[in-house]
Amino acid sequence: MNNLSLQSPESVLFDFDGILVDSEPMHYRAFIKVLDPLGMGFPWKKYVEIYMGFDDRDAFREAFRAKGIDLDDANLAKLVAAKSRAFQDGIRNGVTAYPGAVPMIDSLRAAGKPLALCSGALRSDIERILAQLGVARRFDVIVSADDVRRSKPDPESYTLAFARLSERHAALLTAPGKSVAVEDTPAGIRSAKGAGLRVLAVTNSYGAGELADADWIVDSLESVRFRE
User: Fold this and answer.
1) For the whole model, what pTM was predicted?
2) DSSP state, 47?
């Protein structure tokens, strides 16, 4: 779909990986750096089909479950910390935003729209990349894997993000259905829909057919315009 014009929403809640930056390959390499020495690595295709959209905790849980191996909380925490270190190493040379992502954030902020970031990534990973992109101060609310017990597709993260936005902007926000989540995965779409949000999906990670549950689907955020 090209050149999508939408009525301006009350607020916009952005996913992070796959929406702001093409960081999924970096996450994959970090996972493999940790899992390969354990004999538990998997190909990129399986990462896209199964793991993309999970937070780090659920990704490791699934990798161990697939091998029939128990994973207790203490070892899970060690794996998540090791993967975070590997990811941080991978982004030291910088990251590049997806086309249209930063201009959309800047435009919405200039228009006074409340903005949230709702991601399954760790806050430490998110904040470093936001600083590199120069948009660290654009978001009123950031909900990360550190803030929730259940990752997408569970609606917990989007429900929490919208609740926190509503606390900060009670006079501007009336109902979740008048706000928009920007997503790139089926799990993210289900999460946002479960929280009552409308969803704008971008085909950065999946094809349009796999994102069919979204309200709108675009190839790039460059093609989206909000009108008052």
Assistant:
1) 0.83
2) I
